[in-house]
Design a protein that fits this description.
- This protein has helices spanning 2-133, 136-142, 147-281, 284-293, 313-327, 332-347, 355-360, 366-370, 372-379, 383-393, and strands at 404-406, 414-416, 419-421.
- It has 422 residues and is an all-alpha fold.
- Among the domains are: 68-230, Helix Hairpins; 299-422, Arc Repressor Mutant, subunit A (Orthogonal Bundle), CATH 1.10.10.2520.
- It has a three-stranded antiparallel β-sheet with strand order 1-3-2.
- The two termini are 48 Å apart.
C-alpha cells in the first residue's frame, strides 16, 4: 500500500510537471508571436520615419524653390518700379516737348508772318523802283547839279540795293530755319512716341512676369502645404504605431512575467519531485544527486558590482549601440540601467553567456529585429551610451533586473525615466 501511495504521488508530481511544461511552452509560443509583432511594428516605424524624413526633405526643397521664386518676384517688382519711373519721366518730357512744340508753332507763325511781310515789302520796293524809277533814275543822276549830288544819289541807290539783298538773304535764312525747326520737332516727337510705346511694352512684359511668378509661388505654396500635410500624416501614423509598439511591449513584459512565474513553479516542482524521489529511495547517493541538481544557476543576476564580464571592443560597440537604440533619449542613469540588464543576463544562467548572444537572442530587443541596431552600430553610438556600456561591462551595474519595458506599460518595478525595470 505504501509503495502504491508513493507511486500515485510520483505520478501526480510528474503530471503536474508535464502540465507546467506544456503551459510554459504555450507561453513561449505566445511570447514568440508578440516578439514577431514587435519586430514588424519596429520595422514599420522605421519605414514611416524614413518616409517622414523624405517628406520633410521634400518640404525643405519646395521652400527653397519658393524662396527662389520670391527672389525673382522681388527683382521683377524692382524692374516694374524702374520702368514705371521711366514712364513717368517720359510723360514729363512729352509734356515739356508738347509745350515746346506749342511755342515753336507760335514762333513759326510769327516767322511766317515776318516772311510774308518781308516778301511783300521787297516786292513793293522793286515795283516802285522799276515802275517809277526805271529810266528816270539815269535822268536824275544826269540832271544833278554837282558831282557830290551825283555821288549821293548813286550811294543812295546802292544802299537800297544792298538793303534789298540783305532782306533777300534774311528771307532765305528764315525759310531754312523754319524748315529745319519743323523737321527737328517732327523727329523729336517721333522719338518720344516710339520711346513711350517701348516703355509701355516693357511694362506689360514685366507685369506678365510678375503675374506668372505669383502664380508659380501660389502653386508652390500649395505643394508645400500638401507636403506638410503628408509629414503630419506620417506623424499620426508613427504615433499610432508607437502606441501599438508600447502595447506590445506591455504584453511582452506580462508574458515574460508569467513565463518567469511558470518557470519558477516548474523548477519548484522539479525540485520537489527530486526530493520525493530521494526520500522514496532513501539512499545517500540520491541525496548527493539531488544536491547536484539544485546547483543550477538561478534567474536572479549577480548583485550590483558583481564583477566584470568577458567582453572585447566589439562587445562594447554592440552594447553601446543597443543602449542608444533603447535609451538614447534617456538620462545617463537610464542608459546605464539598460546596459546593466544586458550584463545581468550574461551573468544569469537563463540567457546566453556572451554580450553578442544576449543582444542577438531572438525576440528580445526590438531594435535588433527592426534594423535600427545595425544602423547605429555601423556609425557608432553616442558618447554617454558608450560610457554606460563600459561601466556595466566593468562590473558596475545600477540595477538587479533582467527585463525592462516602457513605464506606461503598467508593469511593477523600478522606474527610471520612461522605462520600468523588473
Amino acid at each position: 500500500m505504501a509503495d502504491r501511495h508513493k507511486r500515485k504521488r510520483l505520478f501526480r508530481m510528474a503530471y503536474l510537471s508535464a502540465g507546467i511544461v506544456i503551459l510554459a511552452a504555450s507561453f513561449h509560443v505566445s511570447a514568440s508571436q508578440t516578439s514577431s509583432k514587435l519586430k514588424e511594428a519596429g520595422r514599420k516605424i522605421d519605414e514611416l520615419e524614413q518616409q517622414k524624413k523624405d517628406a520633410q526633405e521634400k518640404v525643405g526643397a519646395l521652400k527653397e524653390q519658393e524662396n527662389i521664386l520670391q527672389g525673382e518676384l522681388a527683382e521683377f517688382n524692382r524692374q516694374l518700379s524702374d520702368v514705371s519711373a521711366q514712364i513717368n519721366d517720359l510723360e514729363v518730357q512729352i509734356q515739356e516737348k508738347k509745350s515746346q512744340i506749342k511755342t515753336a508753332k507760335a514762333e513759326l507763325a510769327d516767322a511766317e508772318s515776318t516772311k510774308d511781310a518781308q516778301y511783300e515789302s521787297m516786292k513793293a520796293r522793286i515795283r516802285f523802283i522799276y515802275e517809277r524809277g526805271g529810266v528816270d533814275v539815269v535822268s536824275v543822276l544826269l540832271g544833278s547839279n554837282s558831282m557830290a549830288e551825283i555821288l549821293n544819289k548813286a550811294e543812295y541807290v546802292e544802299e537800297i540795293n544792298r538793303y534789298d539783298r540783305e532782306m533777300l538773304e534774311k528771307y532765305e535764312n528764315t525759310c531754312r530755319e523754319i524748315t529745319e525747326k519743323k523737321e527737328a520737332l517732327k523727329n523729336e516727337k517721333t522719338e518720344l512716341v516710339a520711346l513711350q510705346e517701348s516703355m509701355e511694352q516693357k511694362k506689360e512684359e514685366v507685369n506678365g512676369l510678375i503675374a506668372k511668378t505669383q502664380e508659380n509661388i501660389t502653386a508652390k505654396q500649395g505643394e508645400i502645404s500638401g507636403a506638410q500635410s503628408e509629414v503630419s500624416s506620417y506623424d499620426t501614423q508613427i504615433a499610432k504605431m508607437k502606441a501599438y509598439e508600447e502595447e506590445l511591449e506591455r504584453q511582452k513584459a506580462e508574458e515574460a512575467r508569467r513565463a518567469a512565474e511558470q518557470k519558477k513553479k516548474q523548477e519548484e516542482a522539479r525540485k520537489k519531485a527530486a526530493e520525493q524521489k530521494k526520500a522514496s529511495q532513501g539512499t545517500a547517493s540520491d541525496t548527493g544527486n539531488a544536491g547536484s541538481t539544485g546547483g543550477t544557476k538561478q534567474d536572479t543576476p549577480a548583485p550590483s558590482g558583481g564583477g566584470s564580464v568577458t567582453a572585447n571592443a566589439s562587445d562594447l560597440a554592440m552594447l553601446a549601440a543597443l543602449v542608444e537604440c533603447e535609451a538614447g533619449g534617456e538620462s545617463y542613469e537610464g542608459q546605464w540601467a539598460v546596459a546593466s540588464v544586458v550584463v545581468n543576463r550574461v551573468r544569469s544562467g537563463s540567457f546566453p553567456n556572451t554580450i553578442s548572444g544576449v543582444i542577438y537572442q531572438g525576440g528580445q530587443f526590438a531594435p535588433v529585429a527592426s534594423g535600427r541596431f545595425a544602423m547605429v552600430l555601423s556609425r557608432g553610438a553616442a558618447g554617454s551610451c558608450t560610457q554606460a556600456a563600459q561601466a556595466a561591462l566593468s562590473g558596475s551595474t545600477n540595477i538587479n533586473c533582467l527585463y525592462f519595458c516602457r513605464a506606461s506599460s503598467g508593469v511593477n518595478g523600478t522606474v527610471i525615466g520612461n522605462h520600468v525595470f523588473y
